Amino acid sequence: MKLSARNQLPGTVEAVSPGATTAHVTIKLNGGGTVVASITNEAVADLALKPGDSVFAVIKASDVMVGKG
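The chain above was modelled as a monomer; its predicted structure follows.
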């Protein structure tokens, strides 16, 4: 997957907590930190996100997106 965003942080999904419309995806970064992304439940389903998946936290401005490739 190629993106123009330069702030791509590799990590592993630790947890997916769905809500009414959005889910919180907790990502343990390879560098040792943790980031939580708030994305739609539809995006979680489209990416088939689950704990243990290798993902990238993609940060642009104040938003965090998740890419799986």
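The first helix runs from residue 41 to 47.
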